[in-house]
Specification:
Length: about 475
Amino acid sequence: MAGNLNTNTLFVEQAPETIEKGDIGKNLDDDGRFKRTGTLLTASAHIITAVIGSGVLSLAWSISQLGWIAGPVVLVVFSFITYFTSTLLADCYRSPDPITGKRNYTYMDVVRANLGGMKVQLCGIAQYGNLIGVTIGYTITASISMVAVRRSNCYHKHGHQAKCNPSDYPYMIIFACIQIVLSQIPNFHKLSWLSILAAVMSFSYASIGIGLSIARVAGGAHARTTLTGRTVGVDLSSSEKVWRTFESIGNIAFAYAYSTVLVEIQDTLKSSPPENKVMKKATFAGISTTSLFYVLCGCVGYAAFGNDAPGNFLTGFGFFEPFWLIDLANVFIAIHLIGAYQVFCQPVFGFVEKWCNKRWPESKFITTEHCIDVPLYGIYYLNLFRLVWRTVYVIVTAVLAMLFPFFNEVMGFLGAASFWPLTVYFPIEMHIARTKIPKFSFTWTWLKILSWTCLMVSVVAAAGSIQGLIKEIEKYKPFQTQE
């Protein structure tokens, strides 16, 4: 052990030799924190990791509900909406001036600086509730991908009609063990390498899905597709058509949302060039790349499977062969979700640790950083509170994932509830307040129309999620009765 560093901030990560040489000034940013090193590349990687989830492989199902006309239109519209509102939010990182103003480190800080009042608490509930829900959902989804590898090998060995249903629980435990280790990464600033790896994985499995879909179409698969999606009276009832349309629109809207971590990503960027300009470029790069993969996966997948598109054509076994390629794609999904979990849980970690540091500033358990010289790594700053609290958090999310087999439906509701306030409402309201746009002016009016339209999307998507949750609970009741 190299020594201890007792500090009143969890963000001080200066090596003792740096402090001794008196060079600390040139290694700090204008707010006194360790100099940020984030770039356009790292920010773009964070965004792609946050936005592209394994849900990209379920977009064929969403397009199958909407059809060839509405499906691609909804994809493009929500990509523009997300990009636009994200640029508004990027300008709020510093206040009051977007280039020289005071830094806001979290979404709540941004809302506090620009709006204030009860809206700060509402923002916190929406943001951190969504982040916690996402980490639980990713635990479930990653285990499904891991199980899919075993199922793929089972089907290859015993035939496609074999009963291959291994338990998810061991894989949730494996995922949690990996996250306990990775959660000791101190903060977002040290996460760039993992996000870049996760972004590469997302490109890889999405490309495999697209390639397999193209091969299926080229192989002469005659999938039934229509301009309006699944046909009422043939594929489903009219009420099911309405609910699934709502659910599909909601899935696409939420597939682009990453506002819950946008401010934290921007806080990793170097101050020159200005953070808001770099963040806007990163947003454009991230959303453009994501949109390309979304359109390809959704439309090519729909062409391959038609109105019978599965919820996920890799884990849902739209494809069985080549089995080794399916295995590889699911391994890529699991690796991507390992990185994505960290992108979404780091703001939660930072919020709790900052609050505890302010609440108990004299506690050595909370504030002391133990300097450890790790071979092949260098100095690592171990904080015992960080070690205990983050380990407990990962264990709790894993246990919740095991307890609620229908949590993805709950996650859909949480996504619906948080999409409008975090992705649309707060960025627009802060832009209006910051630039002092007059009431009932043309700009004010169309911004309000955009906000209310997205509110309606959230409402109908939430209704669709609730309906899906009720159906899942009804399926679960016979199992409980049998027990």
